[in-house]
Design a protein that fits this description.
mainly beta, five-stranded mixed β-sheet, 1 helix, 9% helix
């Protein structure tokens, strides 16, 4: 009797997220909850005209230089707590000239986080994300339609 119960339990435990080998198994990709900004480095100059991009969510900020104008795109992300859930968070973008220190772009908005399942809907982790385009004239906009190749 004991052997009859253990065999199905062993089969289920060995198949991961799939049930008895049916369906799609989980992948093992790792992902973080985050708010991201993407941009075309050429939009903010390069070399001596390079800019510093600063992205903040609440009081947590990340920054980097805008990158080489030869690159098709660049990005910056602010990591969020894994348990943040379906919330709305304040986001601030500041782009300044490295050379002069002048503010080139300054914008803020609220981001509604979207639930993501990078390994499949029934597999961990669950992450919460939002992505914006850092636009030189419009500030934080939707990345939809942004060409990522030259």
């Amino acid at each position: 009797m004991r052997r009859v119960l253990l065999t199905p339990l062993l089969a289920v435990s060995l198949t991961g997220c799939s049930l008895l080998g049916q369906g799609t198994p989980c992948t093992e990709a790792d992902a973080d909850s985050q708010v991201s900004a993407v941009w075309k480095p050429a939009d903010f100059g390069g070399g001596p005209n390079e800019a510093k991009v600063r992205l903040c969510v609440d009081d947590t900020c990340e920054e980097r230089t805008s990158g080489s104008p030869d690159d098709p795109f660049a990005s910056l992300s602010v990591r969020l707590p894994d348990d943040i859930g379906a919330s709305t968070v304040p986001v601030r973008l500041t782009v300044t000239s490295v050379k002069s220190g002048d503010t080139v772009v300054e914008d803020s908005t609220r981001a509604k986080l979207t639930e993501q399942h990078p390994n499949g809907t029934s597999c961990p982790p669950t992450t919460w994300t939002a992505t914006f385009r850092a636009h030189p004239d419009k500030g934080l906009t939707s990345p939809e339609g942004m060409k990522l190749q030259g």
